[in-house]
Amino acid sequence: MTQGIHGTVADGFEAVREEFAAVVAGELPDYEGQLCAYLHGRRVVDLWACGADSADADSLYGVHSATKGAAHLVAALLVQEGTLELDRRVTYYWPEFAAEGKDALTLRDLLAHRAGVIGTDTGFTTAELADDRVIAERLADQRPYWRPGTAFGYHALVLGALVGEVVRRATGHTLQEVYEERVRAPHHLDFHLGLPAALDHRFRTAGPAVPAPVREASSVSPADGPRTLAAIAFNRNTAHPTDLATLPNEPVVRAAGPASVGGVASARGLAGMYAAATGELDSRAALLKPDTVAEFGQFHSVGHDLVTRTHGSYGLGFQATADVWHPFLGAGTIGHSGAGGCQAFADPAGGLAYGYTRRRSVRPGGAAPENQRLVAAVHTAALAC
Amino acid sequence: MTQGIHGTVADGFEAVREEFAAVVAGELPDYEGQLCAYLHGRRVVDLWACGADSADADSLYGVHSATKGAAHLVAALLVQEGTLELDRRVTYYWPEFAAEGKDALTLRDLLAHRAGVIGTDTGFTTAELADDRVIAERLADQRPYWRPGTAFGYHALVLGALVGEVVRRATGHTLQEVYEERVRAPHHLDFHLGLPAALDHRFRTAGPAVPAPVREASSVSPADGPRTLAAIAFNRNTAHPTDLATLPNEPVVRAAGPASVGGVASARGLAGMYAAATGELDSRAALLKPDTVAEFGQFHSVGHDLVTRTHGSYGLGFQATADVWHPFLGAGTIGHSGAGGCQAFADPAGGLAYGYTRRRSVRPGGAAPENQRLVAAVHTAALAC
Amino acid sequence: MTQGIHGTVADGFEAVREEFAAVVAGELPDYEGQLCAYLHGRRVVDLWACGADSADADSLYGVHSATKGAAHLVAALLVQEGTLELDRRVTYYWPEFAAEGKDALTLRDLLAHRAGVIGTDTGFTTAELADDRVIAERLADQRPYWRPGTAFGYHALVLGALVGEVVRRATGHTLQEVYEERVRAPHHLDFHLGLPAALDHRFRTAGPAVPAPVREASSVSPADGPRTLAAIAFNRNTAHPTDLATLPNEPVVRAAGPASVGGVASARGLAGMYAAATGELDSRAALLKPDTVAEFGQFHSVGHDLVTRTHGSYGLGFQATADVWHPFLGAGTIGHSGAGGCQAFADPAGGLAYGYTRRRSVRPGGAAPENQRLVAAVHTAALAC
Lengths: 385, 385, 385
Fold this sequence. Notes:
alpha+beta, globular
């Protein structure tokens, strides 16, 4: 028997509910997931499926790399107000970063996945991956894996720590603190970088990855060696390789909320953050001005991603979601998917914000395939409004 | 009953006639098209098929983006004589272009589809698309859609206007005037940027696009959203989206001949222009010196085209036809195809110039598939000469 | 009857012997080939198959572009000791190179296949291809085929000559002389740039290419025109196009050992050179320090290769073998394949060096397909050690 769909959709979004129901019907019986969308600041899709268990709209899931969306929103806020300047060298804020030929790199390069310090030759322990300061210290000493300026590659587990160190040096506060104060708390978003103990009971332990015999190739399909660029970037070059799918199950990771992959959120939280970033929400002005959104959404790194060995497209830290995932979305769409299968973005031209979570990941990582259908359904319904 | 093929071929080019006949036999009964080629300044192929109607070698068709070939020939002439300098900033000629972070862009960047101002957030009316000055004025204020210097994308409907504004500022004449005086009139070319009323009776109204169930993917296959980069570049981000296929049917477009897509030509005109540009024709010296051809044919933008989302290769404005369409052509081939299905180029190393028109376009845009067979046949015959 | 496999493997590498035997069993009866690998300076694989003839481990084969690995090792040695500086302009060493807009090119650009002088408009004779000084002189006058700085392409037959000329100007010795004195002789490597007459009896004449009806596409599949970039790069733009497969059969080529494609080696020689370059071998210190290896292995040119029209990845002269051929190899792997089917590389992170030769080439050029299986087998066995 197919499990039920819970929640509501606004008038005109009925087809999204149907599409979500169709997606759930094709999944395993224990499927849990949430889907949320905002149109011009109004929540128009708010759905979830709770598997055999008691999950609901307030359930929280590890969102892996979608965390980077929150990290880069902080960077954008600080650039907007002048605290950070994109074309300054990273070493202006963080002198130790100069080691091994990285002195000329700008903050813009760093945000655009161009620094080349995707990891270290020896890898990290889980405790280290939970601590952005440790990551940053280690990477300050690391030689880039490609010549700065010639290429780019996905800094999967570390970009948030690198940006976070710049934030910390410039403001005296961690990126997580700035995010909490400036973004999360004012909008009551269920998207946490560092989950308070009091909310930990709402966290849903990530289950094992769903076997996926016939899935289309994802943007992250690292080859199978222990010392490849992908292995370094995903911390598989150690005696205890990271299992990305279950990383949020580590209490130390959840509690610290490292800015690359440690976030915990509901779909409401994901979509709400992008809605708040790019438009009016709950009578508050958009966090980012259109010019700031446009600058962070401008394509900065486009082409062969040396880590994933596939086509990649990045703005400043954000994925160019329209180029990589959903080509019908508007120019200037900013977002970030996560290895657990979640997807989140704002399409500012369309006034759309989207969030999706699921409990069990789908191999290989990145936005789960059903997002193709769900984003298309939401987009089509929004256009007809 | 298959319709007949008209015209002549030089000795050694009989196989081209056969290939053209085979192409026509596979088309709909109302097919109209022209094929022309020059080898070392001699017209060696001059064929046409006239459908159910009275078309002939003097019939004129909208050539869409092949128009850009004429526009860039003007730019090359002015660079050759020193009126324009490729490495000067665009703002040296056109100060208003500096807005929104475009001040450092050079003429070279502009010609190489790197400026990033592929359209505007609000789109154009058809009347505006017919007027290069209006387009240029609007784009001067536009923020680039990608960070200048990081990427490139096809400026489908506007590149001619941007280059034209530089020409106008530098010479006091429109690009169309320079083209008429320096290129078209001296060689009596049937390739018009601005069709005189007296010749309008030779224009063949573009018919509806041919349904094409099984066609190979073209270089332009924009995704289906109304605010994508492709939508902006092809002016589909408006209440009245442009139907590119029938745009030349608008009298205002034909009469003005906007330099991106407004040209009207026969195959003789297309091939003749490239023959005149790169070699001796009718006892006149080549318009361009070999060094100028080589510079405009040098690859300048190669890789992922952000607008078409496919592999693109451009010299200075010209398509690198050998890299994109016909890999057996010589290095340094310059050309430009058009959305109606036409194709035109010069292969200077082989002494070859080619032009092809057809009345009804083939979806998706770009050079129609039959060009693969026709160019191969012409090239093979030319090699054997 | 299947021919036998000769040679030895170290404990733990038995599966490599089996894989090699399986490869040989699938080849024609006259197959000849050698396979050699080092792990942390110890020879762990040393196998050969000798066809119907008396080939053995000391047989020498033309290794075509794998020669470039030796050439770039010389460049790396001279950079390491300060004789050459990567970021100096080529013209600092070689003033005549400035012609036709090449004055700003650095040695780094040159090594990274970015110079654009892949050949000449008129091609070379075989005697000229054997003489690096003649090649260099001709290319000094040549206009680049793409705008320096915008793209890259495989300098198939000439890169060694260009680098060699820089070496000669800076040291007063040819690249071949430096290689002999600093690399080959001290390690007694059977990898010769210029084969002494006394050893010529060990050279195995390259046979005709093996017909290969169903082979996967290689990285080098030039289109079929006589004036394409590929034709220029592979010297097919002349009245007497080069047959790359049999080029080493020319005594003048073997004797001179031009640094792009004229090397002659056994698999022991290939693997031994990479072992000596990156690690301790026969109680001698590694020729290159880890920092030098890392710099030459850093990705410098990644993306669309204008000559091969496929995805290319280069460090400084070396192929980024892990990105192009064997994705499971470690980051920083340096190597070079050859058109005869050979493959050679060092994976410094894994302490692995690999060499493979075969007598008859496989169309199209580049590392022969069986390297996929053989490298995987060696890598898997090495990991388990």
